[in-house]
Amino acid sequence: MRRPVLAIAMLVTALVLAGSPAAAATFPERIPLPDGFYPEGIEVGAGPDFYVGSLLDGAVYKGDLRTGQGAVLAAGAEGRFLAGLKYDGRSGLLWAVGGDGQGTELFAFDAASGELIHEIAISGVFINDLVITRNALYITDSLADQLWTVPLTNQGAPAGPPRAIPLSGDFQFVTEGELPINLNGVDATANGRTLIAVHSTLGVLYRIDPATGVATEIDLGTGAVPSGDGIVLHGRTLYVVQNFLNAVAVVKLRPDLTSGEVVDTITSDLFRVPATAARFGSRLYVVNARFDVAPPPILGGPIMSVDYDVVRVPRR
């Protein structure tokens, strides 16, 4: 009689597991964010954890990509706003660039508790996105002809004051227009020796030597990436979020990064002016900023309680 009893026990166990939260995990295609959150930056942390920062008050939302559930991890503060986010697994810190109402700031939150661990003043104009390498943070300043860097220890802690890196070479500094965004999204090669950044206004890509600030335009042939916002580099494939075009350009780069080709465009009926993206496995998670209907208050827009979300799309 042992075998029937064992079979029944296994069946009961399977039924229990099928009804458990782990089994119910579905990795939803759309993950809602709080109404009126004004999201901009998104980052994936440990496992399926993801984080989104607020342009309204600098709050940080933490969610689970498996279930779509989440809550505000770090409360907002009057005058504060957050743009780009990056997670450093060495320290467990979630780094964010933005401002505190008086100037531009670099923030570091404990990714588990939401506690604000570091707050570093940076004399930038509009610091917008960042990337972490083994020994430094690099930050784009979208209304200036410079990058910023903060040295890091091997454990990912700040190791010195911020320093400006003037941009030269092929970089073109644009000052005309209502809001002439220059360098925006930034990422780095695996060894950290080369940065890649997108020029939002010109729709071009640069590879940048972080030691010198020399920028070299990446030849895209007849292609371009206008309205480029956040970027994700995975091997030699670069994903460029094109906010007002409601698309993500897929760029295949040559091994030497001198040139590349726009080989595909990811679109979705769920895109609503996406701003940034983060990679998890074979998917990209793109945050809808909805700049068309709710311009950020930091740019003079009224505070509105519109709905926001994160959208999952396949990588190509």
Write up this protein.
With 316 residues, the protein is mainly β. It has one domain: YVTN repeat-like/Quinoprotein amine dehydrogenase (Methylamine Dehydrogenase, Chain H, 7 Propeller), CATH 2.130.10.10. Helices cover 7% and strands 46% of the residues. The chain contains 2 helices and 25 strands. A 5-stranded mixed β-sheet has the order 14-18-17-16-15, with no helix packed on it. The termini are far apart.
Strand order of the largest sheet: 14-18-17-16-15
Principal-axis shape equals globular
- Return Rg in Å: 21 Å
Total of domains: 1
State mean pLDDT (0 to 100 scale).
92
Q: Mind telling me which CATH architecture this is?
A: 7 Propeller
What keywords describe this structure?
globular, disordered N terminus, mainly beta, single chain, 4-stranded antiparallel beta sheet, 316 residues
Q: How would you concisely characterize the structure shown here?
A:
The protein is mainly β and 316 residues long.
How is the topology of this model organized?
Layout: H1 2-18, H2 21-24, E1 30-33, E2 39-44, E3 49-54, E4 60-64, E5 70-74, E6 81-88, E7 93-99, E8 104-110, E9 116-122, E10 127-132, E11 136-141, E12 146-151, E13 163-166, E14 168-169, E15 183-188, E16 195-199, E17 204-208, E18 214-217, E19 228-234, E20 237-242, E21 247-253, E22 260-266, E23 274-280, E24 283-288, E25 308-314
Parallel strand pairs: 14-18
Antiparallel strand pairs: 1-25, 2-3, 3-4, 4-5, 6-7, 7-8, 8-9, 10-11, 11-12, 12-13, 15-16, 16-17, 17-18, 19-20, 20-21, 21-22, 23-24, 24-25
